[in-house]
Amino acid sequence: MPGLDPNLVSHTLNIELGTKPVVQPRRNFHPEVEKQIKVEIEKLLAAGFIKPIKHPTWLANIVPVKKKTGVIRICTDYRDLNRACPKDEFSLPNMDILIDSTSGQGMLSFMDGFSGYNQIKMSPKDAEKTAFRTPYGNFYYTVMPFGLKNAAATYQRAMTAVFHDMMGKEVEDYVDDLVVKSKTRLGHQEVLRKVLERCRLYGLKMNPKKCAFGVSSGKFLGFQVHQRGIDVDPEKTRALKSLSPPKNPKELKSFMGRLSYIRRFIPGLAAMMSTFTPLLKKGQPYIWSKECQEAYQQVQQLIARLPTMRAPTPGFPLKLYLAATNAAVGALLAQDSREGEESPIYYVSRQLKGAETRYPKTELLCLALVYAAQRLRHYFLAHKLQLVVKSDPVRYFLTRPVLSGRLARWLLQLSEFDIVCTTPKAIRGQAVIDMLALFPEVEESTLSKEVLGELPEVVATIEEEASWTLYFDGSSTTNGGGAGVVIINPERQATALSFKLDFPCTNNVAEYEAFIMGLSTAREMGAEKLKVIGDSNLVLSQLQGSFAVKEATLAPYRTAAERLINSFKQVVMEHIPGVTNRYADALGTLGSKLSYVQEQPNITVVKRETPVVEAMVQEELLEEDDWRKPLRKEFSGESSIKDLKDYVLIFGELYRRLPGGVLTRCVGMVEARRRLQEVHDATCSLEPVTSLYRRLQRKGYYWPQMRKQAADVQANCPKCSTVPTTEEAFTVSLAEDWRAPYLAFFVEGALPTNSKLAYKLKKIFHGWSDSLQEGI
């Protein structure tokens, strides 16, 4: 077979100098296998792919591999030869990009190279090094064989040279798999003719048995591509569904490897695989547990309904959904089509390792964002990205005063992408539902935002039969007790009362006091049906008859409480945890800690929505053209890491991050002029070695063009612009300058009291005293 022109491409081994040739020992084969080997050798000789050799320096063994049809294929064990060859760094195309580029086309043609690598000639100086041993003699390849280390790179380089002007436009190629594409069916014939003429020009042969021309759908790199998007090859899906549960670690690795190839289509794959991972650890017994079987069945259910992915549309933003559990993190990349339908593009997920399992929820989402950026970088760079998540990891980065360690590295990685965060309004696509179902929310305890005057969320869920609701709680301290009561009427209006128990009492007595005073107040307000909610298990259980009254001091309280309960038409009692009864608890604690300076004080609790320092910032007079306004506006809206990576907003005040994590306050131009003059006036007559810009920076100020304005002020100042004399140069602030002990020694001859520093000064005195004085 003629093959490609050697002037265009030939395969060279480039064996490293000094490498000793390896001759592999002979392997024996079954007589039946030897007969088939002979047939294959004769075919290769007839095609001119191999030639006999008598004295090879390198010699490898053959490995017969049986095909599905029962016929063997001769492969060669080139492991020793490959170790002696440096890697060819010619990159193969990104498979995800190729698949995306092939989908969504009007018509496709699929072609496969005839005899694959054998169309490329071996370099004459390296051909004999491919020698191999057979029962019928030794041979070497005149064409590039399968199994060589850099064969794929050489073939890809050749295809790039042949179709260099058509790649990415009319042709997509991965080694010997070629796809001709066109947006419309009418123009496909012309494109196909152009490709075939190029093949004829360079002598590139195609296998007609593996070609499909003018189709709307076909298999490419293990996936089914068509105009609607991308699907997994149905044959691979059927093979996965027909598998039985793995019986040993080897079968489990094979199963997980097959799933990894189609991980793009499976939401939360890493979360499910985390169940299987412990079975692969060394020394771990292989026990297929109930959890493993459930995870296996879950995977099989997902395989049965894999979604259709689509390639992103240029010019439209992408959406990224993040999710995390205590075992894995994941993300979904999606995009709204021109019709407004949200379609999935890519699922990514990975298991947590080591200390990552102890990250807080927000940092887990940051980790998911960073991992998605690493895996999907080619998508992130080409599109604007909308991050759709409840907890905003972007704002988490931008509101941290000091970023160090991994957070600083993450911010640096993300700063090259155009990412903004939006709040999810509604789940619009099945793909998002599938991912969230596999990533349940991480359980975490967060500080409630409730304060006095704001009811917890549970208050809003009142049963219909209880028209009134009473929350009660008691508190006991060494200074006395307190009782807190919250009464909610049918119109959902709350009445909050705090009582000071100015007598010695136990905590249980305080709880009863709160219960009784709450019931009395509710009856006076006209309540007939009442739901009583509290966190005192003892009081509620005693009144419901579950607990007996063992303390004599509580007996009269229970009697009084039962009498009050009987005065209502209906009373329903419910016990809740203390964490959800914070409102009444706060009122009881307030009453227990008060010391009266007058009778019946009236206390007003005012709720503030923002910190007082933020309110002060808002009251600050800003000029109309304040350079900080756009940045503050972006912080309050959709924050972009790319634009705000060097800034942080703390209590409404804008700061700029300097190298090393130092924060400097951003000031307006009016204040900037004032600060510039103040610092200059205060330091003009001092040491000249530090610039005005550096002094402003040390004071913690920043504004645009601060360096230039500071330099202009110093240039226009007679004192600052005059070169200091030698005597003036020695008037250095000894408290602040590191050179102080050295200058004192050289000028006055006085050694410092620190013995180590004194010894150091004596030792280095003769080495650089002259240069130091000259430098000053």
Automatic annotation (TrEMBL):
<dbReference type="Pfam" id="PF13456">
    <property type="entry name" value="RVT_3"/>
</dbReference>
<dbReference type="InterPro" id="IPR043128">
    <property type="entry name" value="Rev_trsase/Diguanyl_cyclase"/>
</dbReference>
<protein>
    <recommendedName>
        <fullName>RNase H type-1 domain-containing protein</fullName>
    </recommendedName>
</protein>
<keyword id="KW-0808">Transferase</keyword>
<keyword id="KW-0548">Nucleotidyltransferase</keyword>
<dbReference type="Pfam" id="PF17917">
    <property type="entry name" value="RT_RNaseH"/>
</dbReference>
<keyword id="KW-0540">Nuclease</keyword>
<feature type="domain" description="RNase H type-1">
    <location>
        <begin position="464"/>
        <end position="593"/>
    </location>
</feature>
<dbReference type="InterPro" id="IPR002156">
    <property type="entry name" value="RNaseH_domain"/>
</dbReference>
<dbReference type="InterPro" id="IPR000477">
    <property type="entry name" value="RT_dom"/>
</dbReference>
<keyword id="KW-0378">Hydrolase</keyword>
<dbReference type="InterPro" id="IPR043502">
    <property type="entry name" value="DNA/RNA_pol_sf"/>
</dbReference>
<dbReference type="InterPro" id="IPR012337">
    <property type="entry name" value="RNaseH-like_sf"/>
</dbReference>
<keyword id="KW-0255">Endonuclease</keyword>
<dbReference type="InterPro" id="IPR036397">
    <property type="entry name" value="RNaseH_sf"/>
</dbReference>
<dbReference type="GO" id="GO:0004523">
    <property type="term" value="F:RNA-DNA hybrid ribonuclease activity"/>
</dbReference>
<dbReference type="InterPro" id="IPR041373">
    <property type="entry name" value="RT_RNaseH"/>
</dbReference>
<keyword id="KW-0695">RNA-directed DNA polymerase</keyword>
<dbReference type="GO" id="GO:0003676">
    <property type="term" value="F:nucleic acid binding"/>
</dbReference>
<dbReference type="GO" id="GO:0003964">
    <property type="term" value="F:RNA-directed DNA polymerase activity"/>
</dbReference>
<dbReference type="Pfam" id="PF00078">
    <property type="entry name" value="RVT_1"/>
</dbReference>
